[in-house]
Amino acid sequence: MTTAIINPAAWINRFFDEVDRGWPQTRSAFAPAVDVAEDQDSYRLRAELPGVAKENLSVEVKENRLVLSGRKEAKTEKAEGRTHYAEASYGEFSRVFELPRNVRADAIEAEYKDGVLELRIPKVEESKPKTIPVK
C-alpha cells in the first residue's frame, strides 16, 4: 500500500475545508500542527499535541465535521527567581474540519501516544459500475 503525503495547500483544497464560520472556536496561542496522508483505504490525520494530557483531548464528529479540541495546561512550578523568557503556549484550542463525502465517520479510529494524535478515517467502498441488462 502506497501512502502519498499531500502538501498543506493541496490538502486544504482537496480534503478538508477548515471551517471558521458557524462553529465556536477558541483562539489561543496554542494550535496543533496537523498533517494528512491518504492511501487507497483511508485518510490519516496526525496532530502534534505536545504537553496535552489525553484526558484534556476531545475528538468528535458533528454534522459531518471533525472537531478536534482540548486544553494544554500551563505548568505551575514554584521556583526561586523569575522567568526571563518563555515561548511555550498554553490554553484551549479547537480545530474544525469538514469531512469529505467518501468517508465512514462512524468508523474513525483514534490513538494518542507520546503527544501525537493519529486518526484513521476509513473511506467508504467505492461503488463499482454495474451493467444492467436490457430485456
Provide a descriptive summary of the structure in words:
There is one protein chain. The protein has about 140 residues and is mainly β. Helix content is about 5%, strand content about 35%. The chain contains one helix and eight strands. The strands form two sheets. It has a five-stranded antiparallel beta sheet with strand order 1-2-3-8-7, with no helix packed on it. The protein has a three-stranded antiparallel beta sheet with strand order 4-5-6, with no helix packed on it. Strand 7 (about 110-115) and strand 8 form a beta hairpin. The model is unreliable at about 15-30 (pLDDT under 50).
Q: How would you sum up this structure in a few lines?
A:
This protein is mainly beta. Helices cover 5% and strands 36% of the residues.
- Which percent range fits the helix content? under 10%
Gross geometry: elongated
Biggest sheet layout: 5 strands, antiparallel
Strand sequence of the main sheet, in spatial order? 1-2-3-8-7
Rg (CA only): 19 Å
Sequence-ordered SSE layout with sheet pairings:
Elements: E1 4-5, H1 8-14, E2 33-38, E3 42-48, E4 57-62, E5 65-72, E6 91-98, E7 109-113, E8 116-122
Antiparallel strand pairs: 1-2, 2-3, 3-8, 4-5, 5-6, 7-8
